[in-house]
Amino acid sequence: MENILVVGANGTTGKKVVNLLKASQYFNPIAMVRKEDQLAQFKNEGIDTVLGDLEENLAHTVKNIDKVIFAAGSGGEKVVAVDQEGAKSLMDASKKANVKRFVMLSSMGADNPDAAEDLKAYLKAKHNADEYLKQSNLNYMIVRPGSLTNEKGNGKISLQRHFEEHGSITRDDVAQTLVHSLHEDAGSNETFEILEGDTLIGKALDSVS
Asked: What is the CATH code of the structural domain delimited by 2-206?
């Protein structure tokens, strides 16, 4: 089984990713959290953990890690320090550790943040992180969902390189897409947007590979 570092494991989407990986026959999740009091919830479920702060040295977090899912976010408080520079720091550490794939949870609008009416600073930070990843020589997948909802997912999405219209998608289906993106047959070095749709996630990813 491959060891998957889940960055932002304590977040709403991150927890869903960890649970999907735990149920998988292919992957072993390692939940990266920032605070010691966040460790117990994962350890009680038999999930491996690592303490890591995106504003500090991250070399130890990628030891014996095969692939990374970056699902962290500052919640708008530290978009440059965490969403941009923290992500870049983890990419550098991943490259040195020979991580085989880096899956980035980005956002619709990150391709052109200057056009955004809302969240411009956040989208700019995500844009800069995405561009850094593209130039990193890491094997990557950049997933850009629309607005996230907490409704129950159905394992189906709509996927395009770029949507003209904005829309929404469940966190369940975003988490599933991130996990599917770990597989080699999902393609490599791709950037795409996802919304609610009618295509099974695995089949939708086949269209970009």
From this structure: 3.40.50.720
